């Protein structure tokens, strides 16, 4: 008897084709029974490469005709909203890439439908599963670290289609990362610089300050002023006499106070329980795992469905991140 979850794919573009679909190989075995995309050439390539038996160009048609347990959806925020709503109402569980909709109002509607239908949902904020950020969170919550007192992050990108799209698709990642690390945050100040804002080409930069109820202060710097071929992402957490620095996802340093040093004219020794702990991924290893969190989030979603658990972040959690975009707009008015 085949007890595998029956999965449908909605959106067969680059991210799904090149990366996300392959993450299923780490999860509990499932049956991918159908795929949907409005672009028939893209659909042909995807279903042919992955040997998926049934294809659709209309997701409503797929939901009506297929007996699906869940979908994996990667399109764009506007279509994510439409697909998620239709899937839940059809009795289907949902994994959707960030961002699941274009506004807080839509997020609230999705949450209402989630509660109404009782369906399981998860939003793909992959930074919550990224190896270096998970390690940073674990260490920052240890008694040794002494709490996070300052948070600084940078997240840069190449020019975007629009300022609104940049905030919705890019800045939101580090809003969610701050919430993941610290809990709820309150924005206190924002500045913006614009280099170019022509149709289809926006270069904009933001510096955003926030605080938490526990007294942590933080800043997020994010802009579409860079070329993504250059290092684009950084996080620093400051504790009590120690800090954690993550550079571009793959380089992690935990600096701990060394205690009493020898006199300056004598050689330094590494101090057990002090000095720096360093992690970075070995490029010499067989490239079977990316450390960006996609494998872990798909494994986690399928595992939750298999064992009847509710994953996070779901739509209820995501509303808090979406509201930070509203708060950012209000600060800039």
TrEMBL record:
Pfam families in the cross-refs: GFO_IDH_MocA
Superkingdom per UniProt: Bacteria
Transmembrane intervals: none
Keyword Membrane among UniProt keywords: no
Positions of the Gfo/Idh/MocA-like oxidoreductase N-terminal domain: 5-125
Family membership noted in the UniProt record: Belongs to the Gfo/Idh/MocA family.
Name of protein: Gfo/Idh/MocA family oxidoreductase
């Amino acid at each position: 008897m085949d007890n595998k979850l029956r999965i449908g794919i909605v959106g067969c573009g680059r991210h799904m084709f090149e990366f996300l679909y392959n993450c299923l190989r780490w999860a509990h075995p499932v049956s991918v029974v159908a795929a949907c995309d409005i672009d028939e050439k893209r659909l042909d390539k995807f279903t042919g490469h992955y040997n998926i038996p049934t294809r659709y160009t209309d997701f409503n048609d797929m939901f009506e005709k297929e007996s699906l347990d869940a979908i994996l959806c990667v399109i764009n925020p506007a279509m994510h909203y439409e697909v998620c709503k239709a899937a839940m109402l059809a009795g289907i569980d949902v994994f959707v890439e960030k961002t699941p909709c274009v506004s807080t109002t839509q997020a609230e509607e999705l949450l209402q439908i989630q509660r109404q239908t009782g369906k399981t949902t998860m939003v793909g904020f992959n930074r919550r599963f990224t190896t270096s950020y998970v390690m940073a969170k674990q260490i920052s919550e240890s008694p040794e670290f002494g709490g996070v007192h300052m948070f600084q992050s940078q997240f840069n990108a190449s020019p975007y289609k629009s300022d609104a799209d940049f905030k919705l698709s890019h800045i939101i990642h580090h809003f969610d990362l701050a919430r993941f690390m610290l809990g709820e945050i309150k924005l206190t100040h924002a500045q913006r610089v614009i280099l170019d804002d022509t149709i289809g080409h926006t270069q904009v930069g933001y510096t955003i300050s926030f605080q938490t109820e526990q007294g942590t202060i933080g800043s997020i710097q994010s802009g579409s002023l860079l070329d993504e071929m250059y290092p684009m992402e950084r996080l620093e957490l400051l504790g009590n006499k120690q800090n954690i620095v993550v550079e571009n996802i793959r380089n992690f340093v935990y600096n701990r106070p060394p205690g009493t040093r020898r006199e300056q004219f004598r050689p330094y020794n590494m101090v057990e329980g002090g000095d720096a702990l360093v992690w970075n991924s070995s490029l010499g290893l067989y490239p079977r795992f990316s450390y960006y969190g996609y494998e872990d989030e798909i494994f986690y979603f399928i595992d939750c469905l298999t064992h009847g658990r509710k994953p996070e972040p779901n739509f209820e959690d995501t509303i808090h991140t979406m509201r930070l975009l509203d708060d950012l707009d209000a600060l800039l008015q």
